[in-house]
Design goal:
By secondary structure, this protein is mainly α. The protein has 14 helices and no strands.
């Protein structure tokens, strides 16, 4: 009996040591986890902590105060949030319509010319977003490149297209087009040509193939592109300031004002927390519908 007990004790000790031993995968990922903890989690925790401070102070109180959140829900900040939400949804809808034919051509039709189109989309990303938006200002302002050309060549004296909602949406669509296009290209490339050809051979129309085969199979890439675009558009700032001229006050404008001109960091932090919670909930909800392993080619054999 003593021998059996000693053997069991040794086995338990070896099992405990095996549990304490870090796996090679965890050791490899440890630097990344530390970087994410310092560069991502720590700032978020700081913002969360500031949101529970009293207005105009930088001291933690116990119990934490909720006055900043009460001020948000009792004020008119919901208007800015609703406008940001509407502009983000409009941007996603327009980019879905614009990017589908381009993405379909890049994935299925253009062949080697797809690389040239990829470069045409990627190269502007090497230029600062603000510089590109100011280029649109020169293009759309009264007497600028476009409207000045219309007046000189056609005699049409049109008003400036800047500082209104369409100009903001134009800027959002222009800036975030790559974030919709490339995931959509990936999603469409996952649709097998053999599947669509088989559907045509069985008598399916072009609309039926699109609705019942291409669109569902490409949906993971479409969802990821739409999600990226929506999140980035929801928190955008430069488009409304440069092209909109404060015609529309977006939620990012409210956050910037609270942190800078208002010097009310607790209020700005509370607005940021609400925006992060909304975006995070949306991301987690949609990711439950997307098979990332299938997209990344990591699906195992069943």
């Amino acid at each position: 009996m003593a021998t059996i007990s000693q053997s069991l004790s040794k086995a338990d000790a070896q099992t405990a040591r095996g549990r304490l031993r870090l796996s090679p995968g965890l050791l490899t990922a440890l630097p990344v986890l530390i970087f994410l903890a310092l560069a991502f989690a720590a700032p978020l925790l700081a913002v969360l902590g500031y949101s529970f401070m009293p207005e105009g102070t930088f001291d933690f109180t116990f119990p934490p105060t909720l006055e900043n959140y009460f001020a948000i829900f009792s004020g008119s900040y919901y208007i800015s949030f609703a406008k940001s939400l509407g502009l983000a949804l409009a941007t996603v809808a327009l980019l879905m319509l614009i990017c589908w034919p381009i993405a379909y051509g890049m994935a299925k039709l253009f062949g080697r010319w797809a690389n040239l189109m990829t470069l045409a989309v990627v190269i502007p990303l090497f230029v600062s977003e603000n510089i590109r938006l100011f280029g649109w200002v020169l293009f759309l302002i009264k007497g600028g490149v476009f409207l000045g050309g219309l007046k000189a060549w056609l005699g049409i004296d049109a008003e400036s297209m800047l500082y209104d909602v369409p100009a903001i949406i134009l800027g959002l669509v222009y800036v975030y087009l790559p974030f919709t296009l490339f995931p959509m290209v990936l999603g469409i490339s996952m649709v097998s040509r053999e599947v669509t050809e088989a559907a045509f051979d069985m008598g399916a129309s072009r609309w039926q193939v699109f609705r019942e085969i291409e669109l569902p199979l490409a949906m993971p890439g479409i969802l990821i592109g739409g999600l990226l675009t929506f999140i980035l558009s929801l928190g955008s700032l430069a488009e409304s300031k440069i092209l909109g001229g404060q015609a529309v006050i977006m939620i990012a404008d409210e956050i910037e004002t609270a942190f800078t001109f208002g010097q009310n960091w607790p209020l700005g932090s509370a607005l940021s927390v609400i925006l992060i919670l909304f975006s995070g909930t949306l991301v987690l909800t949609l990711l439950n519908w997307v098979d990332l392993d299938r997209i990344l080619g990591r699906g195992g054999n069943d």
